[in-house]
Amino acid sequence: MSQNKIEAYAQTQKSSMPPREVEAMAFTKAAIMLQDAKKDLDDYDTYAAALKFNQLLWTIIQADIIDEANRLPDQLKANILSLSIFVDKQTVTALSDTDAQHLDSLIDINKNLAEGLLMNAGDDPQKTNPDTPNEQTSDISI
Question: Exposure of 126 by Cβ count < 10 A (0-12 exposed, 13-18 middle, 19+ buried)?
């Protein structure tokens, strides 16, 4: 995994956009890249690049979920980790067999997460819990 890519993602999150919108944008970008890859399955470089971007995104999520500073409820963390394991397995399958159907579930997952994040973007978890410090301790707010 490229440290530069992780730093770029972290830097983007420090922008003026709320974290949920940044995360939704990342999931949307991954979904678009996967959709584009479906259009020309003979272009393995584009196909593999889309899958690798998606895998990088999910690796970042996995790292954040297991971070002790992450304050998401344990059950939600477990659900996200289970989903990320599915994404990992599906990615390996898709990399070894260029079939558009392998991308469909990954696209759907990313779209649904992006949609959910945008739907809840107005919900500021810092405002709903007065005991929570003003600075966000987790980079991922799924």
Answer: exposed
